[in-house]
Write a structure and sequence with these properties.
alpha/beta; eight-stranded parallel sheet; five-stranded antiparallel sheet; binds 1-deoxynojirimycin; 24% helix; 569 residues; 15 helices
């Protein structure tokens, strides 16, 4: 097999200001990236040993999902100590070594901050339980008395994002049934009270702790959820984070105006550090103007464009979402941050293999209609090439550079996402996109670690997707991502402006999307959403394509269906 030369090292500190405006940031999900000690769970030394892969791929930065001390009730998004590393993943020294090696390779490091809730095993929550009602310790969380004659009913009707009620009743230190605490997610994830200055001060300490250790920024979990309506009204809607409600009523727990003051204060802290440190919002907020408020000049730098992620495979709808969200961000001077996959959604190589118009499922089981693998691969590659040509920043979720599909037939008894249990299996949950990566096609556990153990089972198809069978193979998805990232930088696509264009030869077709980009507008990007090939303009140079051009009946070169090409017309 052809060996691919390593990407030369770049210094993150000298690569120019505001790197985040155009960066491609790779999400590492530590549990599932690479295992160094054979326990079946990925870890920090495993990541450090594989950072060369990311430098070779050509990304600018990595974002690490949580690796902090945690009972792992929500795969680490239940933090029991923000300033230490869970032994499952290594030690603080391992975190330092990871950051140092990444910087040596020219990669910046963004870590996850989970400020909406802690674990119920965090010392702050234990203190709150022990101190009893009315104490300053309880005021760190959202404890309320219950309704009903004996406080036996929850304070409001809110439901948890993971299913079931959003309140849990505690037993008081004297053994009596007591107050209730709010948990927008699992019962093991009590929400902090962000109206309490003590909470603000403590989390600012967490920011400084990691900034002092040299991280380049934070991905802020549930950024739209930190503040709640102090009146705690009933809501009587499902807690659906992106859509406010069908009748437009604003939810009492999402996207409240007073959340922004928190990010202004954090921005001041980041700006006081040397280097160009960033905040990226995980905010499931619509419409685009509400999301853009998170990236105003004195707040965060980026906010994931989840509306884009959720857009069906349709030329008209993609054009509409790109236009609207770019305009909303431009109005506040921020780049748009594109994303197709992450650890919470069905991988896009599988999602796009479902019939167009299928609502995005929360996981897929063997009993569900299965995605069309070949179609998903073709559309997935086309979607990626389209995304990487758009102006702004983009996130790549580990394994998507291999075209990894979702594990869609995982048995119920190995599923670990709390959503699965809390909905009684009605929602499969997110385990299918969190499966350990295949590095080597013929090694135990596909080379995930030194043993055959993997915390979730890998489907047999992963042998076909392993890195070693793709590396150096020009037609592979891995080499497509590498070429796309190299060309995106060389052609100057990310800082450019996009102009919608008529695709030559598309006529009245409504399944073709085209735009020009690049500093001189000299690159034409064309995506065919349907199945019918599109003749390529004669003489056009194909800079990169997600599928090989075909020869149409009349002998003309054509871009096949479900494909994207970058052309120099
Ligand atoms: C969003 C994270 O991405 C998800 O994995 C987690 O379950 C929730 N926030 C709760 O922290």
């Amino acid at each position: 097999m052809t060996q691919t030369p390593p990407t030369p090292a770049r210094s993150p500190r000298t690569a120019g200001g505001e790197w985040w405006r155009t960066a491609v940031i790779y999400q590492v999900y530590p549990r599932s990236f690479a295992d160094s000690d054979g326990d079946g769970v990925g870890d920090l030394p495993g990541i450090t040993a594989r950072l060369d892969h990311l430098a070779e791929l050509g990304v600018d930065a990595v974002w690490l999902s949580p690796f902090y001390t945690s009972p792992q009730a929500d795969a680490g998004y239940d933090v029991a100590d923000y300033t230490d590393v869970d032994p499952l993943f290594g030690s603080l020294a391992d975190a330092d070594a990871l950051v140092a090696r990444a910087h040596e390779l020219g990669l910046r490091v963004v870590v996850d901050l989970v400020p909406n809730h802690t674990s119920d095993e965090h010392a702050w929550f234990r203190e709150a339980l022990a101190a009893g009602p009315g104490s300053p310790e309880r005021a760190v969380y959202l404890f309320r008395d219950g309704k009903g004659a004996h406080g036996e009913l929850p304070p409001t009707d809110w439901v948890s994002v993971f299913g079931g009620p959003a309140w849990e009743r505690v037993t008081e230190p004297d053994g009596t049934p007591g107050q209730w605490y709010l948990h927008l997610f699992d019962t093991k994830q009590p929400d902090l009270d962000w109206s309490n200055p003590v909470v603000r001060e403590r989390l600012e300490g967490v920011l400084r702790f990691w900034l002092d250790r040299g991280v380049d920024g934070f991905r802020v979990d549930v950024a739209h959820g930190l503040t709640k309506d102090p009146a705690f009204p009933d809501w009587s809607h499902p807690v659906s984070p992106l859509r406010v409600s069908a009748d437009g009523t604003r939810a009492p727990m999402w996207d409240r105006d007073d959340v922004h003051e928190i990010y202004r204060s954090w921005r001041r802290i980041l700006d006081s550090y040397e280097g160009d440190r960033v905040l990226v919002a995980e905010a499931w907020v619509a419409p685009a103007e509400r999301l853009a408020a998170y990236v105003r000049p004195d707040e965060m730098h980026q906010a994931f464009n989840f509306e884009y992620l959720e857009t069906p495979w349709s030329a008209a709808q993609v054009r509409d979402v790109v236009t609207r969200t770019t305009a909303a961000n431009t109005a506040v001077g921020a780049p748009t941050t594109w994303v197709l996959s992450n650890h919470d959604v069905v991988r896009h190589a599988s999602r796009l293999g479902l019939p167009v118009g299928t609502p995005r499922p929360n996981g897929i089981t063997a009993d569900d209609p299965q995605p069309d693998e070949a179609l998903g691969q073709a559309r997935g590659r086309a979607a990626t090439l389209l995304m990487l040509a758009l102006p702004g920043s983009a996130y790549v979720y580990q394994g998507e550079e291999l075209g990894l599909p979702e594990h869609t037939t995982m048995p119920a008894d190995v599923r670990q996402d709390p959503t699965f249990a809390r909905t009684g299996g009605a929602e499969a949950g997110r385990d299918g996109c969190r499966v350990p990566l295949p590095w080597t096609h013929d090694a135990p556990g596909y080379g995930f670690g030194p043993s055959r153990r993997t915390w979730l089972p890998q489907p047999e198809s992963y042998a076909r997707y392993a890195l070693d069978v793709q590396r150096g193979v020009p037609s592979s998805t891995y080499e497509l991502y590498r070429s796309a990232l190299r060309l995106r930088a060389e052609l100057g696509l990310a800082p450019a402006e996009l102009a919608w264009a008529e695709a030559p030869g598309a006529g009245a077709r409504d399944d073709v999307l085209a735009f020009t980009t690049g500093p001189d507008g000299g690159v034409l990007v064309v995506t065919v959403f349907g199945e019918e090939p599109l003749p390529l303009p004669s003489g056009a140079e194909v800079l990169l394509a997600s599928a090989d051009p075909v020869t149409a009946a009349d002998g003309v070169r054509a871009l096949p269906g479900s494909a994207t090409a970058w052309l120099r017309p």
